[in-house]
Specification:
The complex is a heterodimer of chains A (99) and B (308). Chain A is α+β, with helices and mostly antiparallel strands and 99 residues long. Chain A has four helices and four strands; from the N terminus they run βαββαβαα. The radius of gyration of chain A is 15 Å and the shape is elongated. Chain B is globular, with a radius of gyration of 18 Å. The longest helix of chain B is centred in the C-terminal third of the chain and has 20 residues. In chain B, helix 2 crosses helix 9. Chain B is of the alpha/beta class. The chains are: A alpha+beta (99), B alpha/beta (308). The interface between A and B is medium-sized, with 30 and 31 residues.
Chain lengths: 99, 308
């Protein structure tokens, strides 16, 4: 597996905060969990209506998803398993070269 | 242009540099490779000068890809652009005109250390790989390290953050090298194009304020036509406009710096997609992404050659 399979179980989710309160809650949880923000480039840009894509490591997904459900913040899973997506997107040639 | 080189897969830094060396040897009529400096980890910062050699004065276009390490479609496009230029120079009147009248300075991988690190260790690495004496975290956001509204909105003073602006502007040797080159050649560089991912946007200054640039009508017209040309290929929509209103107000980026330093056409492309794959754009989508983006870049270049 590429990258020693480190991205197995990681997900990428999309959130669009409906209110400023939700945006604030997301900023708070981002600071706590230190998740990888795919867009926007900085958490400071997140406000009501901002399309926000977050890469969640497998070991943080339970905490984050529980928080989102508790806060009634809707989200959509963009990438179910980052490792699979990574390997699917690369040709055999690329994977062979990298190994 | 290079037998056996596959432009529809992502390549390691070594492969890209070997490719550049090969072109330098085999296409010396149209290509010159040179280094503008060294990265933090000591790697050469290679640039290709593409265009018909001429003793007469020629204007130039600067293109860089891979400021952010994980945005692999950027370097893939830079390679595609060179390939297309060499392949169609004789058969395409527009390309012939472009290469006869202009030089293109192409930097396929701006953030060489970060790109190598994303290839070997952390696929989602963004920053450079410089060290910080006080923190264990490495790297600076190379697009927040420019001396234009430095470290303002959306940038961070903390070394462990992905948008860390650095201890001071141009602290990163990669940024310093490019800035020095652009300063030295600013009289004849008429366009600055930087390629990123993802969002499907074509942005121009300003990022850091809502004000309209002095040559707004020319730049807006170029962007409008470029986006239409791009869409004509596969129907893919790109938003376009000033970065501050199309995205958000942020601290100055490379595009803002280039514009502030006298380059009249400064653009940042955010290539495919809009989030379905994000940074993991599959290799099968390299060709359509690059094909449509070529149309946009050719359009901007042809616009540049006309007087506006």
């Amino acid at each position: 597996h590429l990258y020693n399979n480190r991205y197995a179980g990681d997900q990428v989710i999309r959130l669009i905060p409906k209110t400023e309160e939700e945006a604030y809650a997301l900023k708070k949880i981002h600071h706590q969990l230190k998740v990888d923000l795919w867009q926007p480039s900085s958490i400071s840009y997140v406000s009501e209506g901002t399309v926000t894509d977050v890469h969640i490591p497998q070991n943080a997904s339970q905490a984050l998803l529980a928080f989102l459900q508790q806060a009634n913040i809707q989200y959509k899973v963009l990438i179910e398993d980052l490792q699979k997506a990574l390997e699917k997107g690369s040709s055999l040639q690329t994977q062979r070269n990298r190994r | 242009s290079v037998p056996g080189y596959n432009y529809e897969v992502y390549h390691s830094l070594e492969e890209i540099q070997d490719w550049m060396q090969h072109l330098n040897k085999t296409h010396s009529d149209l290509i010159q490779m040179f280094s503008i400096g060294k990265s933090y980890e000591g790697r050469s910062l290679f640039v290709l000068k593409l265009g018909r050699r001429s003793r007469a004065y020629k204007r130039a276009v600067w293109i860089d890809c891979g400021i952010h390490a994980r945005e692999w479609i950027g370097p893939a496009f830079c390679q595609w652009f060179v390939k297309e230029a060499l392949l169609t120079y004789r058969s395409d009147p527009a390309m012939r005109k472009m290469l006869n009248h202009l030089y293109f300075y192409i930097m396929p991988v701006f953030n060489v250390d970060g790109y190598h690190f994303s290839w070997t260790n952390d696929r989602f690495w963004r920053k450079t790989r410089s060290r910080n004496s006080r923190f264990r975290c490495r790297g600076v956001d190379a697009n927040r390290n420019w001396k234009v509204k430095w470290c303002d909105e959306g940038a961070s003073m903390h070394p462990c953050d992905d948008t860390y602006c650095g201890p001071f502007p141009e602290s990163e040797p990669e940024v310093k090298a490019v800035a020095n080159f652009l300063r030295k050649h600013k009289k004849h560089i008429r366009a600055y194009l930087s390629f990123h991912a993802y969002a499907q946007m074509l942005l121009y200054p300003y990022s850091y304020k809502y004000a309209t640039i002095p040559n707004f009508s020319c730049v807006e017209s170029a962007a409008y036509k470029a986006v239409n040309a791009l869409r004509s290929v596969y129907g893919v929509q790109y938003r376009y406009g000033p970065a501050s209103s199309t995205l958000y107000v942020s601290s100055g980026s490379s595009m803002d710096w280039a514009y502030k330093n006298g380059i009249p056409y400064a653009f940042a492309f955010e290539l495919r997609d809009t989030g379905h794959f994000g940074f993991l754009l599959p290799e099968t989508l390299i060709k359509p992404t690059c094909t449509e983006t070529m149309m946009a870049v050719k359009n901007i270049t042809m616009h540049l050659l006309k007087k506006c």
